[in-house]
Amino acid sequence: MSESSHALRVQAQPGMFRCDMRNTALVLIDMQRDFIEPGGFGETLGNDASQLAQAVEPAARLLRWARAHGMLVVHTRESHAPDLSDCPPAKRCRGEPSLRIGDMGPMGRVLVRGEPGNAIIDALQPIAGEVEIDKPGKGAFYATGLHDILQRRAVTHLIFGGVTTEVCVQTSMREANDRGYDCLLVEEATASYFPHFKQATLEMIAAQGGIVGWTCTLDAVLRGVS
Ligand code: C5J
C-alpha cells in the first residue's frame, strides 16, 4: 500500500477530519443486546429499543469498511462483575426500572458480564484480533485498559459509532478528547432512545470549532479514503 492509501479525509462538521488509518481505531460503543433488543435493560428503563436498531446496519457497514482497511477495531460493553463489586449503589438504585442491574431478566442477569443480554448483537460480533472492552461506567476509558491499549498501538484518532449517543458515546468521546485523541462520530452509526438528544449531541460535539470532535455522515467516511 502506498503512503497516500492510508490517508483518510472526511468532509465533517465543523471541518475536514484528517487521519492516517494506521493510527486510527474504530470504536463501537455498547452495541449490546441489553440496549438494542426487546426485553433488555433499555426497555426495563421504559425506553423504545427500536430507536436504537436504526444504527445497526450503518454500524455494520462502518465495521466492514474499517476491517477492509485493516483498521484497529474496539468493541465496548457496559457490564458489571457477577458480584456487582464494580457497580456503585448509586448506579444500581437510580430511577424506577422494572429490573435493576444484576436482576434476572429475559436475557439473563441485566448488564452482568457473560450473560446473554450483555453480548454484542449478532450483526456486529467481534472477530479475532479486535479489542473487546468491558466497562463498568458510561465512558470507555473509566476503569478500563483502553488508553494503554491505544497508546501501545500509537493510535491518535478515533472514529466512533454505537449507543446511546448522548450517554456512553458522548461520555467516551469526551474522555478520549481529554486524553488527546481526535474523535469523529458517524451520525447514522449512532442512536439514542431520544432522537432530539442525538441531534443535540451531534451539535454540541462539533460546536465551538469541534470542542469535543467532529461529526459526519456514513457516506462521507466511506468516500473519504484518498
Ligand atoms: C446507557 C449506554 N444509556 N450505553 N448506556 O445507560 O449509553
Task: Give the overall form.
Answer: globular
- How many whole angstroms does the radius of gyration measure? 17 Å
Number of E-state strands: 10
Distance between the termini: 12 Å
User: What are the bound molecules?
Assistant: dicarbonimidic diamide
Bin the helical content. Answer: 25-40%
The CATH architecture: 3-Layer(aba) Sandwich
Please provide the ordered H/E string of secondary-structure elements. Answer: EEEHHHHEHEEEHEHEHEH
> Would you tell me which CATH topology applies?
Rossmann fold
Q: How much of the residues is beta strand, in percent? A: 15-25%
Alpha-beta classification: alpha/beta
Brief overview, please?
Keywords: Hydrolase. By secondary structure, the protein is of the alpha/beta class.
Write up this protein.
By secondary structure, this protein is an alpha/beta fold. It has a single domain (7-223), classed as Isochorismatase-like (Rossmann fold), CATH 3.40.50.850. 32% of the residues lie in helices and 22% in strands. The chain is built from nine helices and ten strands. The strands form three sheets. It has a six-stranded parallel beta sheet with strand order 7-4-3-8-9-10, with helices on both faces. The protein has a two-stranded antiparallel ribbon with strand order 1-2. Strands 5-6 form a two-stranded antiparallel ribbon. It is globular. Bound molecules: dicarbonimidic diamide.
